[in-house]
Write a structure and sequence with these properties.
about 600 residues; mainly alpha; five-stranded parallel beta sheet; 24 helices; about 50% helix
């Protein structure tokens, strides 16, 4: 495996090696001896077609006319032995890539064209297809999923001699090898990635030793990579409302399906252990007590949002929220927008169907595609690039959602502080003057400051006293302000709170693609990386299909629910189908 942190560099390496091997094969194929064998095989096949060879194994009888030969061939399903040998020889010389012109050992053969076509559809002129024929693969985030699976399969079966890869092969994929090459330096080549990548070579029970080769990297960095200590690994599992909802859905499925009591008990015990294990703790700033209280906050939030009932049973569209857990807080905001009737009003405007579908996609793209714009090109071809300001009604829904989330979070934090006031540390000593205003007997010199500070900080419970000195109370305008102004002992990560922050400049690449269907414009105008265009559009296409399928099922089950309106379902179906059609027409060849 050759690791190079640039996708373009991986392509260049693969093209260069493939071109070198192909040129050597072309020299052999154009040699006089090879051409003589090719011409002889073609002559034998042509002679069979003209009826000059006998049909059958004997080869001494006069052949039948062409029509009779064809009928006989169809009936027996065989060619004459001479023709079979000629076809095999011609296929071996022209179509088959001999391992002499690959980097594979003599007892290994590269993948054939049929084996590649069985796993992934690729154009025969595609350089990556030609590289696979010569036993060379490329693996990075920009290539298609099926192509990556084909590369992984052929490499594990020892049909590929070398794979040029970025950090996608650093961890999580079983692709052991004998040698690893680090080709070129990069800022992403750190000690952790080095250990993970170099660990591909010399796997236990597969090889006695492995080789690591450095190419184009300074000697001092090589020594630093080898000698550096690994960073401490910390848990990064997010405890958010979507996770809690998935747990409740699983529990509801077990109880409703009459599962054995042992299964239900094991699942409940697993959830209890999960909340007590340090996967959520990180650097121990979030205590086990706060984890349990935060789990209760998520349950209350889901209950107030009418996603679960009083018994904890999931309600309408909980499956959609859980299915789109990776988009939080967008999944929860979408249900809020849907329940408000905003999409129903949008779909019943006095406009043409095309305009209505464009408005609906605009809303969905604002909710689910949250990519900022860092640079607006001076000359744009056909993309808007930046979303215009949203409508006042949509803004009001976002503000209501954020206010509801913030109010619930403040209530939860106050309850936690009230329950564990004695265990929580106090912010009582000023950092510069060292005045401790928690003492009951202040010094004479400190009495004035002490009295003033105590009168101010009595109005806060969850905000740090040092921020309270500036006149702040427990009212927060956004999540960022809350996260960096909480008192000691409290920890809140903005990633686990379903607070929907509006971006000042939000990229409108999904809406632009829906209008023009050009992937090149997304690269030049919207600034989307070529390696990310397919994945971002493909993910949004799946989101549209999931939303439409969930609403359609809900409408068919109960047409009177606010989550299932026939007009909304029809418009969403048209939007999803149109977007998928444009996506397949433009990028369907990638996978």
């Amino acid at each position: 495996i050759v690791f190079h942190m640039s996708q373009r560099g991986c392509y260049k390496f693969a093209d260069h090696v493939t071109s070198e091997l192909k040129s050597r094969r072309d020299v052999w194929l154009n040699s006089q001896s090879t051409q003589t064998r090719v011409l002889r095989a073609k002559a034998q096949i042509e002679a069979h077609r003209d009826g000059q060879l006998c049909h059958g194994a004997g080869g001494n009888k006069k052949a039948k006319p062409n029509s009779d030969v064809a009928d006989d061939e169809q009936s027996t399903g065989k060619f004459c032995s001479v023709c079979e040998d000629a076809r095999s020889t011609l296929s071996t010389l022209v179509d088959f890539i001999d391992n002499r012109f690959t980097l594979l050992p003599h007892d290994r053969t590269p993948p054939s064209a049929k084996e590649i076509r069985d796993m992934v559809y690729m154009d025969q002129d595609d350089p990556m297809y030609i590289a696979l024929l010569y036993g060379i693969g490329v693996h990075h985030a920009g290539v298609g999923r099926k192509y990556k699976l084909a590369v992984e399969y052929f490499f594990r079966t020892k049909r590929l001699a070398v794979v040029f890869a970025t950090g996608t092969l650093a961890m999580g994929i079983h692709m052991p090898c004998r040698s690893v090459v680090f080709a070129g330096d990069s800022a992403y080549l750190n000690p952790l990635n080095f250990r993970q990548m170099s660990g591909r070579s010399g796997r236990r029970n597969l090889d006695l030793r492995g080789s690591v080769v450095f190419l184009g990297i300074r000697k001092d960095k090589v020594f630093r990579l080898i000698r550096s200590q690994l960073p401490n690994l910390q848990g990064n599992m997010l405890l958010n409302p979507s996770f809690c909802l998935r747990v409740l859905i699983k529990h509801s499925m077990l109880t409703s399906s009459s599962a054995p009591a042992l299964f239900i008990s094991q699942f409940e015990n697993s959830v209890k252990r999960l909340l007590c294990e340090p996967l959520f703790l990180g650097d121990q700033t979030l205590s086990v007590m706060q984890i349990n209280h935060y789990f209760r906050f998520c349950i209350d939030l889901l209950s107030q949002a009418h996603m679960i009932d009083e018994d904890g049973t999931p309600t309408d569209l909980c499956g959609l929220v859980a299915h789109l857990f990776f988009t939080e807080p967008s999944n929860i905001l979408f249900v809020t927008v849907l329940a408000s009737g905003f999409l129903f009003d949008l779909c019943n405007q006095d406009k043409s169907d095309e305009e209505i579908e464009l408005d609906v996609l605009d809303v969905l793209a604002r909710i689910f595609t949250r990519t900022p714009v860092y640079r607006i090109p001076e000359q744009r071809h056909s993309s808007v690039v930046v979303f215009p300001p949203p409508s006042s009604q949509f803004l009001q829904l976002i503000e209501q959602h954020n206010q509801f989330t913030m109010t619930s979070l403040v209530r939860y934090l106050r309850c936690f502080v009230h329950s564990f006031r004695e265990e929580l540390p106090t912010d009582s000593t000023l950092p510069m003057s060292k005045v401790d205003f928690s003492t009951t007997q202040p010094n004479n010199q400190e009495s004035g400051i002490h009295t003033a500070i105590q009168s101010i900080t009595r109005s806060t419970q969850i905000r740090s006293n040092f921020f309270a000195i500036g006149g702040h109370n427990d009212q927060f305008k956004d999540m960022q302000e809350m996260c960096w102004s909480l008192r000691s002992g409290l920890f809140i990560d903005s990633d686990i709170i379903p607070f929907f922050s509006l971006l000042k400049l939000q990229n409108s690449y999904a809406l632009d693609f829906y209008k023009h269907g050009q992937s090149k414009a997304l690269q030049t105008d919207n600034g989307i990386s070529p390696s990310d265009i397919y994945e971002t559009l493909f993910d949004f296409s799946l989101i549209l299909k999931a939303v439409h399928a969930a609403l359609k099922r809900r409408f068919e089950a109960n047409p009177n629910t606010p989550f299932g309106n026939e007009r909304v379902v029809t418009v969403l179906g048209n939007v999803s189908k149109t977007f998928e059609t444009k996506f397949r027409d433009e990028l369907g060849h990638v996978r």
